[in-house]
């Protein structure tokens, strides 16, 4: 269970944790993994954390030094070397929104290409002017696309009270246990409003099952250069 500083993120991560508990397929890709913050949510047989920052990957591998956890040093917009139709679970959190529109679309296009026939692809995005294009892209690639709207008006008001220049991470009050509990309580209201686009600022896309019935490929990285035994290098 997550008790985060922001109610909206508390909702997002508790929702993902519940959802990913049931996905125990072979290959999981955490796209823009930082130091493998989402590692514990993945129940796939293998976890690949992909990030553009080598130090983040090294830190992640220090935390999770097991035989099923790997790093991939890569830019999300340049994943051509990874095999298409090969990844069973793709998750990207708190990152795509920060990429410029062309890079964001290239990243999503890449992740769609990597997804295996029965894959699930989950990513969070702001409800901004790129939303319709991304929705169309996901509908083009996947049979089922579920949209969960979140960051509702209650979360927005709560977060505005504490934000400083848009940041809330290290707020001395919001970061305390009672306020994290309050944020968790507010996050429960997200379940009531998650179908109402007009009340919310963000979306979580949950896309499932490729449309074009491709054959599944092995997630074979044997041709890719390694920085060390656990980190592949696409740069
Ligand atoms: C805010 S962190 C998100 C980490 C984690 N997914 C989470 O939800 O907390 C953003 C991460 O994206 C990585 N990143 C930014 N641009 C990227 C790109 N174009 N390709 C791959 N990783 C990128 C950064 O290095 C950083 O680790």
TrEMBL record:
Matches recorded under InterPro entries: Methyltransf_11 (IPR013216), SAM-dependent_MTases_sf (IPR029063)
Molecular function in Gene Ontology: S-adenosylmethionine-dependent methyltransferase activity
Xref: CDD domains: AdoMet_MTases
Pfam families tied to this protein: Methyltransf_11 (PF08241)
Domain Methyltransferase type: 40-122
Name of the protein described by the UniProt record: Methyltransferase type 11 domain-containing protein
Species per Swiss-Prot/TrEMBL record: Candidatus Kuenenbacteria bacterium RIFCSPHIGHO2_02_FULL_39_13
Taxonomy of the source species: Bacteria, Candidatus Kueneniibacteriota
